[in-house]
Amino acid sequence: MGANSSVISINDDAESFSKPGLGDLPESCAALILSHFDPPEICKLAKLNRTFRSASFADFLWELKLPSSYEFLVDKLFGSQGNCLNNVVPNDKREIYALLCRPNSFDGGTKVAWVEKSSGGVCFAISWKGMKITGIDDRRYWSHIPTDESRFQTIAYLQQMWWFEVEGELEFQFPPGIYSVYFRLQLGKATKRNGRRICNVEQVHGWDVKPVKFQLSTSNGQHAISQCYLSGPGSWVNYHVGDFIIENGNALTKIKFSMTQIDCTHTKGGLSVDSAFIFPNGSNERPSKC
């Protein structure tokens, strides 16, 4: 009897101790684990328990996820404008990351930059208003059309012209990586009638005679040239201009890009110009090259 009682007592004592779980991890260890995940996954894991939630606020963790040039990015976007909540840039790295993941405008609202949550890469959009367009202020050739199909709420529409030329540039402290530049164009002019999208293509002409020439150059000596016939009337198409490589993320790099069709043997028209995009390699928003 005594022996049996002793066994029962020992078993009862063993069962009184709970098994260790994730909640028993030191917060610093949980933060190290989270550092191996991307930001969306970190936010999901923060819901596991109180330890992981506290660890998800660690400054070093979010500094690892921020672009290497995030201080330049913050200064460019908010330094002189105070373009954030309460006109104050937060000190908390997690809040800075969240702030940079929103589309933030600069250069008078003609450009937008944002950090992509999944890749951590910096993306850019440049409105047609932030580019040089031949004859853009002459209403005989160009119309400025409000639309909800553009993030800038307006597009430039070419009715007819002999000389087509659009030039853009951006000087920035790009984080290291490979970047691609695109022009977002559409053959035709889209409108809405009775709630339905209708694209008028009656003025589209001249783009099948000669291709459009796309060019890209950087201040550190990189160049790219390509040609492409514009196609797909009625749909927005991202036309690939070229790629460039950033190795030194601490240096200012100026990029210039353009598209031209200056063969004066024929006119061209019926083209909607929205914007240009710059996407880093690995971005989910980076389209297939046209």
UniProtKB/TrEMBL annotation:
Record InterPro entries = F-box-like_dom_sf, F-box_dom, PP2-like
Which residue ranges does the record assign to the F-box domain? Answer: 25-64
Q: What is this protein called?
A: Phloem protein 2-like
Q: Which organism is it from?
A: Dillenia turbinata
